[in-house]
Design a protein that fits this description.
4 helices, Ribosomal Protein L15, Chain: K, domain 2, 160 residues, three-stranded parallel β-sheet, alpha/beta
Length: 160
């Protein structure tokens, strides 16, 4: 077998349709474009959102433009004043104990501690992020701050 002997498999290709080459060819006259109108003209394509000249939906709702960042990291936010009534002095505060206390929905959530209010008891607080004021208030109350590593959800593997 040589290069010039290569052919597509039998039945795998079709002859192209020769449009506008007379009635006998089966696509004469209007060449499959129907009669007069925008679709019969050259360049007569309409964009997919075209609504017959009416202002398209995509232009009527300008606030719906943009995109959603799928890589955004969301945190469950807890203020330090909410730790006062749920935890006693010397207790360890982490995502598991926060979920048991009902301050967050799931121990798998990423937690950020914010600085509203004051902390009355020394606590060991373990969270994924701290605001600067929250860190200062926990340390001022005699507690400890520990930053947990981020456990971001893995992207789903592509199926090939």
């Amino acid at each position: 077998m040589k290069l010039h002997d290569l052919r597509p498999a039998k039945g795998s290709t079709r002859k192209r349709k020769r449009i506008g080459r007379g009635h006998a060819a089966g696509q004469g006259g209007t060449a499959g474009r129907g009669r007069k109108g925008q679709g019969a003209r050259s360049g007569g394509k309409k964009p997919p959102y075209f609504e017959g000249g009416q202002l398209p939906l995509v232009r009527r709702f300008p606030h719906k433009r943009g995109f959603t960042n799928i890589f955004k990291v969301r945190y469950a936010e807890i203020n330090v004043d909410r730790l006062n009534d749920r935890f006693e002095a010397g207790a360890e505060v982490n995502p598991l104990t926060l979920a048991e206390a009902g301050l967050i929905k799931s121990p798998d959530e990423l937690v950020k501690i914010l600085g509203r209010g004051d902390l009355k008891a020394p606590l060991t607080v373990k969270a994924h992020r701290f605001s600067e004021s929250a860190r200062e208030k926990i340390l001022a109350a005699g507690g400890m701050v520990e930053v947990l590593p981020l456990r971001l959800p893995m992207a789903k593997p592509l199926r090939v």
